[in-house]
Amino acid sequence: MRFSGLRVLKEGLTGNRGWQAHWRDAMPKSDYDVVIIGGGGHGLSTAYYLAKEHGITNVAVLEKGYLGGGNVGRNTTIVRANYFLPGNSEFYSHSLKLWEGLEEDLNYNVMHSQRGQIVLFHSDGQRDAAARRGNAMRNQGDDAELLSVAELKRMVPYLDYEQARFPIYGGLLQRRAGTARHDAVAWGYARGASDRGVDLIQNCEVTGIDIENGRVRGVQTTRGAIRARKLAIVVAGRSSQVAAMAGMRLPIESHVLQAFVTEGLKPCIDHVISFGMGHFYISQSDKGGLVFGGDLDMYASYAARGNLPLAEHVMEAGMTLMPMIGNASVLRSWGGIMDMSPDGSPIIDHAGIDGLYLNCGWCYGGFKAVPGSGHAMAHLIATERPHPAATGFRLDRFRTGSGLMDEEGTGTQHNLH
Ligand SMILES: Cc1cc2nc3c(=O)[nH]c(=O)nc-3n(C[C@H](O)[C@H](O)[C@H](O)COP(=O)(O)OP(=O)(O)OC[C@H]3O[C@@H](n4cnc5c(N)ncnc54)[C@H](O)[C@@H]3O)c2cc1C
């Protein structure tokens, strides 16, 4: 079933009786060429690109809950390509280009909105760092503009320029950055993969990984054993737990990240705004809610829920940046489990066991990576070679210390990235 304006018109005139389910509710088979554990953004996009780019369709995605019920449906939807270090910058640049063609590719409205992201700076030193980052982004072929305070005042007049705790010195703007409707991204990839023959199996938790003579043979699940020639672990915040089923100890810690949304308001915030000094960032959804979040809880946990101290911290940061936000009522808040790597950069690699592949360590920035990650992961599984845009995401950098990508310059402490 293809979506088009004509189709919407026809359905509207005929009682909306012709719409079909977006994907097949598949029953698990006993055997697959590739099994992907995890029906989040990265697992679904991996399945999609395996089928579309490599013709590998005897594939199952096993999801313990419902598709898109994990972090892909819990994030604050920011999409950008403003990384500084080689390794990261070419990957996120590649991912943003995929975003720009995604709706046509999937024939699905993911509401990708390139409304621009402004990262504020608050000192001369931060301005230098922002200028260097902007130059790195432009060298990579992406856009970046350094904004003065006068330019900022024209674009975002509602920030507190007079009495904020951290005075605003300017901002780094990426116009091609923006947002997308997060669960539509999961649904779009699910539909595209299912249409190409991939089995999407919900309520199917992987409980064990079968390995014989150093080679993956399949998985044990709550819906029975499934054999697989190749197995991909793509479970975000649960990466350490699932990898442990294969006897692996990953350099990943799981931390909670919270977000908040207000009641719907008339359009007032046109961009994504990031306020690093206060650990606060905000955008306005197409429904009108102000969507905002802050920092990690700094305490390793598998609880996908928030807590009051962090809520208070985020509200304070919002109020100091834009006091007008105090007039809005918060509608709800939630948490997700982040797979924090020691250098803040991800892993897309062989796991060191024949037929086993790893995709994890996306920290709190993996939504924007969904197209690039699936594309690179599918390439790795199909060809056994890393995708040219993802050669730096090796697992062994944490053992050897060579090739670490410490994007934030915060050292090797998981909760600081
Ligand atoms: C509050 C918040 C704000 C964020 N904001 C942004 C942002 O603005 N921009 C950005 O780029 N990123 C953001 N992120 C990060 C981003 O959401 C994640 O990095 C990304 O979604 C993780 O990849 P995923 O979509 O595949 O994860 P998930 O959707 O979590 O997918 C993993 C899936 O694996 C399943 N699973 C786990 N264990 C098993 C098992 N044993 N068997 C079967 N299935 C299993 C889970 O149920 C889950 O559905 C944010 C995250 C949060 C929580």
UniProtKB/TrEMBL annotation:
Sorted UniProt keywords: Cytoplasm, FAD, Flavoprotein, FMN, Nucleotide-binding, Oxidoreductase
Gene3D superfamilies linked to this entry: D-Amino Acid Oxidase, subunit A, domain 2, FAD/NAD(P)-binding domain
GO terms, biological process: tetrahydrofolate metabolic process
Secretion signal span: none
Catalytic activity: sarcosine + O2 + H2O = formaldehyde + glycine + H2O2; sarcosine + (6S)-5,6,7,8-tetrahydrofolate + O2 = (6R)-5,10-methylene-5,6,7,8-tetrahydrofolate + glycine + H2O2
Domain of life: Bacteria
EC number: 1.5.3.24
Cofactor list: FMN; FAD
GO terms, molecular function: nucleotide binding; sarcosine oxidase activity
Subcellular location: Cytoplasm
InterPro entries noted in UniProt: FAD-dep_OxRdtase, FAD/NAD-bd_sf, Rhodanese-like_dom, SoxB
TM spans (from-to): none
Domain Rhodanese: 34-78
Gene Ontology CC entries for this record: cytoplasm
Similarity section: Belongs to the SoxB family.
Protein name per its UniProtKB record: Sarcosine oxidase subunit beta
Organism this protein belongs to: Roseovarius tolerans
Gene name for this UniProt entry: soxB_1
